Amino acid sequence: MSTVFQPFGMKPSFHPSGLDRSVPFAGTNSYTVGTPNYSAPYSLSSGQSFFQYQPVGITSSGQLTIAATAAGTSPVYGVFDGVEYTTAEGRRTLGKSISKASLDAASAIVFWIFQDPEIVYEIQCGAAVPSSSIGSEYNFSATSGYTTADGYTIGTGGAGFSTTAIANSAVASGAQGQVRVVGLGREVAYPSGALNNWNDAYTIVQVQIANNTFRAPKVSV
Questions:
Q1: What is the pTM of this model?
Q2: Is 19 a member of any domain?
Q3: d(Cα 56, Cα 71) in Å, to the nearest integer?
């Protein structure tokens, strides 16, 4: 049973075609703004970071940013999986997370994003999710610590992971959500080691991006 709330962002699980498009760097596309030095292809507020498995969006000016909580604000472009860049010292570097401060000092920035609309992800909910939720849509959590902007870094310069969760309840019927539940997550529940199940206290579910930049949104009914 999933009895501990420990969200891990939107973790790619599989691609319905059976191809390895959810495998890091096999299923990602590069994102830059195409300027001569690939400068500033991002929009972050002070203190913010990009974390692995974080949902991301695109601003009206074409910059990568953190995805909105609710579908009414803006669509989801994909899921962040890493970045390569040149440091101020001229060293080419690859990371799974990066802060705004590090990006501001970097050049030749290339982001790697899971952006195929068909990819199925796993994500944790802050409440129990029943099997009847298949087909229902959810927005991302607005609770501090579990929003699309939240995450953590392991050690100085270490890996950084998203702590994004989905909201505790689905959007109303006929309303647009950010993701759609398509199945039960295959993750082994922590700390029991038991299989994750429907109606667990903090159910892990499989989702696809419902409010996708690349296709017309479809509301749940």
A1: 0.90
A2: no
A3: 13
